[in-house]
Design a protein that fits this description.
CATH architecture of the largest domain in chain A: 2-Layer Sandwich
Largest sheet of chain B: 5 strands, antiparallel
Distance between the termini of chain A: 68 Å
Number of strands of chain B: 14
Largest interface: A-B, 26 and 21 residues
Radius of gyration of chain A: 27 Å
Distance between the termini of chain B: 49 Å
CATH class of the largest domain in chain B: Alpha Beta
Number of helices of chain B: 12
Structural class of chain A: alpha+beta
Strand order of the largest sheet of chain B: 4-5-10-6-7
Strand content of chain B: 15-25%
Helix content of chain A: 25-40%
Number of helices of chain A: 19
Oligomer: heterodimer
Shape of chain A: globular
Strand order of the largest sheet of chain A: 3-5-1-12-9-10-11
Shape of chain B: globular
Radius of gyration of chain B: 18 Å
Chain lengths: 764, 274
Amino acid sequence: MSVLGTRVVRKEDPRLLRGEARYVADLDETDDPRLVGLAHVVFVRSTVAHATIAELDVAEALEAPGVIGVYTHADLDLEAPPVMGGMLGPDVVRPFLADGRVRYVGEPVAVVVAESVAEGVDAAELVFVDYDLLEPVIGVEAAVDADTLLFPAHGSNVVSGFGAEAPDDLFDGCDVVVRHRIVNQRLAPAPIEPRGCVAVWGGDDGVELTFWTSTQTAHGVRSTLADRFGLEHDAVRVIAPDVGGGFGGKMHLYPDELITAWVARRVGRPARWIETRSESMLGIHHGRDQVHELAIGGTRDGRVLAYHLEVLQDAGAYPDIGAFLPYFTRLMAQGTYDIARVSCRTRSVVTTTTPTAAYRGAGRPEAAAAIERAMDLFAAAVDLDPVKVRRRNLIPADAFPYTTQTGATYDCGNYPRALALAVEAAGYDDLRDEQARRRAAGDPVAMGIGVACYVEITAGPGAGEKEFARLTIDPDGSATVFTGSSAHGQGHATAWSMIVHDLTGIPMDRVEVVHGDTAKVEAGVGTYGSRSLQVGGSALHRATSHLVARGVEVAAKLLDVDEAEVALDTETGTFSAESVSGEAVGWDEVVRLSGEPFTEAHEFVTETPTYPFGAHIAVVEVDTETGQARLVRLVAVDDAGRILNPLIVEGQRHGGIAQGVAQALVEEVRYDADGNPQTANLADYGLISTMELPAAELVPMETPTPVNPLGAKGIGESGTIGATPAVQNAVVDAVAHLGVRHLDLPCTAERVWHALELARAEAG
Amino acid sequence: MIPASFDYVRADSAEAALAALAEHGDEAKLLAGGHSLVPLLKLRLAVPAVLVDIGRLEDLSYIRDAGDHLAVGALTRHRDLERSAVLAEHLPLLAHTAHLVGDPQVRNRGTIGGSLAHGDPASDLPAVALATRATMVITGPDGERTVAADDFFAGFLETAVQPDELLTEIRFPKATGAAWSYQKFVRRAQDWAIVGVAVQGGATPGVALVNMASTPVRAAAVEAALASGADAATAAEAAPDGAEPQPDLQASVAYREHLARVLTRRALTASALG
């Protein structure tokens, strides 16, 4: 029996649970003898949203106790790179330290290097910055036409976009057209471990820079550092030790991290930077932050004929990947529905706020939230049940592969089945009956039921997504996986061991998984976008299969039979042949007697992305006096193709759902009109906790994809994509009978109360 | 997140703490559980020259039945209030409210004296002190003095405790068998109240509000309405009267006033008052 598909307990957990993990902040000379005499890096950050720097004086800080150096942009001999590899022009390039102008609160202005963190913090307070304030630019709609430009040479605050405005005839033939403005608010990735890094220059083996960092992409960071310092890639070694979460926020090298490496070279000492939580809430790039104008039209009997989504993306102060995530929003705009006419235009706009980038879902939750609100608004307009309207419009199960109006080709799926499973598990009809009874009885605690169907894209956006794996089997019969996909909570050690065991029969506890060290793993891309198993796992699958084929070759010689006769028992890891019964050779013998290193590498290259899908149903209770919504149930069908380890998949689903519910009910990064951040700590920001979450009811569904050898799609982000609109729709549904048509995210108590007050006033 | 430099003095007794305060005056800050002060220190919003640590004054940690009242030592942790059999019998409002403070980590460190002396209008326990008409025992260089809860909360994060004084005990009238209610409206379980209402039944019912002014505040208008025979719903309408709620991220003034009415009505109804 194959181990794949079974609930293997995560082998990486015991050391994490015992506190034996080593994060960047823990590293010392026991990890590397060079990590003695660390210099500590502290940044002076902008306290204003938008200003030119009239004066920047570091003289007093330089005299402070323990200070090794204080540096500003004028000291840097680093060239800022083109934005997104040149996708945007030189007008909007980000300097590593502020170059005479600051564009958001938290932007690094100067860097202090000191003997201790405490001395560094004290000295940073002595750096004198005189700001000449400029108008802040807050809110994408205002930013589009604002007189104040963040980058005057660019001539506009709009920096990028995809698609065109809706054609004039888009809604021809529609009985009903509903339009609405909706907000997909800004969120903070807020991993439990903030950013941090240690840089050491000089060493053996031609490595000039060794860089430990809390990252999702060790190899990407290696390449970026090498390019910035003009080094060969092999001259930089990047190590991701244990990483306490990323959620997309640790996908790239940040300026603060690059500066830490620069500082270490400048002062000739190893240097460490560990950010505080308050820095992290402004420093790790934020996610989401789109404003939508949607329009949906169709027939009175519930057939949707046309849909347009207008997206304004807040890119923050310096356009980065966040300016391009609307590409995914546009690609996935149509959702799970068969709609004849779909258009979507996106524009990305700079504002004087923290730059935006990927956060769990990254462009796809926004698409799902828009189309799912649109379906509910349309259902309400034609007075039909939201499930009925969805059924009426879902892409049929026999229509795959299905190409959408915005160019996505869905690989495989069964959306009606996903919805049917969710409806059945939730007891949808009974829920509606209960809701009707409670409404009739005038229950002040209103019950709401919300539905969301979703499809998302993983390992995209196109073909050619790569990941590397090498498998080596040693003469003692143990195996080592070298994977370019670097885990930070995903369970690679377990999943990768399962793949090796499944194909070789080598016990899982004799499989070591190595990742996140560019000196040990010769190539890699990293862990993001729900890509690891389907790309990195497939690479390992191929490498392992090649090694098994070589094992068969050697075993055939040892057993003195034809290769075709050799069978590998994947329970025991032994080769045998029928004609020589009683004889069997293990991997140890095969490797020893082969006389050459037993290792195979493979780079898996995708031919197409995969499209996980599902349906979520949320049940909420809303206190109509206070407006407070409480999530009572969350039923989730998430189909991510073939499942390798249900335990790990369920963990991903619970975690994703928690963050999805958080977007629906609690979390929001906020700025005041002057561009001052108002949620720069976890108390104000309000990460959701277990006390606000019921246990999600997870319904299994598996539709294997044909596009990779594992049949797997991504599961890392699905929870955030389905849960947010399901819960949002449920809260609206709870108060719909009181006259509320829409509630923006997050559906906070005051927002619901305010909507109820307005509806009551309108009802007179 | 590193505090500015300060000198640290660990007091072994209340007398030693007072001596340290006498020496350093308003340059000094008392550190008990630290759950209000330490975040302020780390953000450098508070920069005392001297920290006087009274966290180990175990003889100020007690809950005693003192006959006509309950005596609670200022260093008593929230967790001990929560679990006290004496409070469960004679003042369940305090035990229950302590159970709603922060999360278990906070409750294991935070102290009732620290919470009251910090005087945060968003904290839970000051409203209980007002609703129950507690008396604060303050020890200073000239010995003890007592201050009624109504005279204790002087301004935003200001109390009657002077820089050279130490809050040592809180005396609560017994409320054995009386009805009570604490309504705490939060975004997340561990958060400060957006608005809270403490109601203590008895011969003279007490009603106090959380986060409805720059100080913890008594809902005097509600108490007066009750005294004149108003029902719960009518009395609750007066909850915002005399309060001066501030807007913040979580709530506007109008919403706070609305919540105060709703929560007060619920608290009065739950206490069978009005």
